[in-house]
Amino acid sequence: MDIKVNKNTVVVFDLDDTLYNELDFLKSAYQSIAQHFEPKDWKPLYSSMFSLYRNKQNVFEALVLKYNIKIETLLEMYRCHEPKIKIFDGALELIHSIKLKNGKIGIVTDGRKNTQLSKIKALGIIDLIDKIVISEEIGTEKPDQANFKLIESAFPKHSYWYIADNLKKDFVAPNELNWQTVALIDNGMNIHYNSYKYLDQIHQPQGFVLSLAELNII
Question: Nearest to residue 109, comparing CAs of 164, 184, 191, 173?
Answer without folding.
Answer: 164
